[in-house]
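User: Just a sanity check before I run the rest of the batch. Below are the structure tokens for the first item. I only need the designed sequence back.
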């Protein structure tokens, strides 16, 4: 099973679902990292020109997958 990096916003209406997904992945031994970013909403990753958090999340994603691939 592939590793999962899951990100959400503190103001995301799906935040509880995201936390549950991360917990299930952990339960079954799937490598997972769940991050919550303050002050952003669902789909905040689409706003890289306006939100530093979106750029941070993308950088965290790149770092996570480099780690998973051993790069």
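Assistant: Here's the designed sequence for the first item:
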């Amino acid at each position: 099973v592939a590793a999962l990096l899951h990100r959400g916003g503190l103001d995301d209406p799906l935040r509880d679902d995201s936390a549950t997904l991360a917990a299930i992945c952990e339960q079954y031994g799937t490598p997972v990292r769940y991050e919550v970013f303050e002050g952003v909403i669902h789909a905040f990753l689409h706003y890289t020109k306006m939100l530093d958090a979106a750029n941070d999340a993308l950088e965290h994603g790149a770092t996570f997958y480099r780690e998973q691939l051993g790069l």
